[in-house]
Amino acid sequence: MADIRQVVDTIAKKSVVLHQTLNRNHIINYMERISMTEKKSYRYGLANPKEVAGMTGKELLQAIIDGRLPQAPISETMTFWIVEVGDGSAAFEGEPGSHLLNPMGTVHGGWALTLIDSVAACAGHSLLPAGVGYTTVETKANFSRPITKDAGRIRAEATVVAQGRQIISSEARVLAQDGRVLAHGVSTIMVLGGAK
Prior knowledge:
The protein is an alpha+beta fold. It has helices at residues 2-14, 16-21, 24-37, 49-52, 57-66, 73-78, 109-125, and strands at residues 80-86, 89-94, 133-143, 154-163, 167-175, 181-192.
């Protein structure tokens, strides 16, 4: 907040016209709205295996969130990103747009399904030890409301509901900015590698 006020003060001092036309509070409110919806700059790619050797699933996902490792390449195409990870939980945020529209003019259901699959798999991945991977066995989704290209930031949250030695199941919800459920589902992953 203090940084925004400093920027506004600098702009106002350097631009007499701006200062005369817009009052300081309107500028601050506008900049705060922009900063809340501003897109973070991400890098995309695959992590170097040497960089992730020895990292638990949660550590690897946190490194992606922190920007120390790249977001997955699919995140660039699908315009969604992992933003939070906990023990058995994860959250993604995404920006629907015209590149995701189906012939009916709404966001294709595959986008929400992919969000559910991704966030649920990451919730499971957060529980895995170093050197252990996974693959999706099944993902099911129900679409509750249409998603439009102008829906703004969409959030997906998932929590592990069952964990065995080889199978982990997570529930996920895709939420509008006002908290309404747009889609929900369940995804099951199979643990690969030396889980004990």
